[in-house]
Please model this.
Amino acid sequence: MYAVYVLKSIKTSKRYVGYTAKDLFDRLKEHISGSNKWTRVNRPFKIIYKEIFQNKTEVIRREKFLKSGQGRKFLDDLL
Model:
């Protein structure tokens, strides 16, 4: 299974959209530990949105949508 997720930085209120095949909370721990430059600078986080998918193609398509202008608007309206 795959998950697309949206993190919100508690420090800066910025959002991070990503996907993973790992357990979502294990992936969040990696972000909190500073696994890449953006998450290292903007941590700590909370998960504000997630969706589960059966295959990689679907999750990548959804991640791209959430990163688009329409996807950002969708998240703004939802949250």
The radius of gyration is 12 Å.
